[in-house]
Amino acid sequence: MLSNRTIFVTVPCYNEETQIGKVVETMPAFVDKIVIVDDVSRDRTVGVVKELARLDSRVVLIEHKVNGGVGKAIATGYIYCRDAGADVTVTMDGDGQMDPADLESVVMPVIEDKVDYCKGNRFKYLGGLQKIPPVRKFGNFVLSALTKIASGYWHVTDSQTGYRAISLAALNQLDLNSIYPRYGVPNDILVKLNIAGMRVGEVPVNPLYGVGEASKMRPARVAYPILKLLFKLWLKRIFARYVVQNGHPIVGVLAMAFVALSLMALTTIYILVETLRTEIIPKAALIVDGFAFVTSMQFFLSAMHMDYQYNEELCVRLEGPAHKNRRRSVVSHQHWPKE
């Protein structure tokens, strides 16, 4: 327990026989339960966890019968912790990339009722940016920018980190059975939290990367599903927050933006067809096309500003330790099968 609150940590696992022992052994003493969800690992992860459970009574093993993806494993852990009545539930990956020294700083904002959901932020940690591999850094920047728009949490700058703490009240507001099962799970959860009106904050966390680390993620394969998911999540949130919940004027602004965008698309097609047919660019249509583009962008920017203002109270800016003297950990990790 910490500050008289029960703390459960759920750890989704897939092929982590070499790493899961370190995760459990370095878990702080204030953690009441370590809920490890195995997503049908092909190695000895289950056997290792069973041995860990024999040595540490806090360890609980849940085994999936069918591989469902990291999101499904997180949902399974969340359901267990919710049903057990844990005051705060934390997610940590099973690959050892999350520094246990950061756990207290991640859970305290939830315990102190400053936020309902606290995320780790690797970019805010002193020297954190330099530790993250370039490709992963670029991908995180892009996804975090798009997640700001999709989720309404405009202050979130590291959307993909797996180090997260959530209150029991917030867990009870989420439909855990509908959580996105694959790589987009953190983005999906943020949108669900925004629809439920939950406060979200970030604290600096130390990203641990080891020598020889190899990621099996294929950006080209993941990019389209994630972009498609983010667009769907944005539409879902706009409808839920601004149509169903209160009938906000932003709906009219977005409608005008789409009208202008449609006009631009039609005039663009007309310009292309006429240019190919007559070899002359229709200047009047070109002017209308440019006007429609500028107008649509103005409406979209106005809508984003309105969304920013409306969600300001849910975007909690937390103060957190940016640096501590810690040992460096050497880790390697394996990923869930990708879509």
Secondary structure: elements and pairs:
Layout: E1 7-13, H1 20-25, E2 33-38, H2 45-55, E3 59-63, H3 70-84, E4 88-91, H4 103-111, E5 117-121, H5 128-131, H6 134-151, E6 164-167, H7 168-171, H8 185-195, E7 200-204, H9 219-244, H10 250-278, H11 283-310, E8 315-316
Parallel strand pairs: 1-2, 1-4, 2-3, 5-7, 7-8
Antiparallel strand pairs: 4-6, 5-6
Helix pairs in contact: 6-9, 8-9, 10-11
3D structure, described in words:
The chain is an alpha/beta fold and 339 residues long. The protein has two domains: 7-230, Spore Coat Polysaccharide Biosynthesis Protein SpsA, Chain A, CATH 3.90.550.10; 242-314. Helices cover 47% and strands 11% of the residues. It is built from eleven helices and eight strands. Strands 3-2-1-4-6-5-7-8 form an eight-stranded mixed beta sheet, sandwiched between helices. The longest helix is centred in the C-terminal third of the chain and has 29 residues, at 250-278. It is elongated and about 80 Å long. The protein starts with 6 loop residues before the first strand and ends in a 23-residue tail after the last strand.
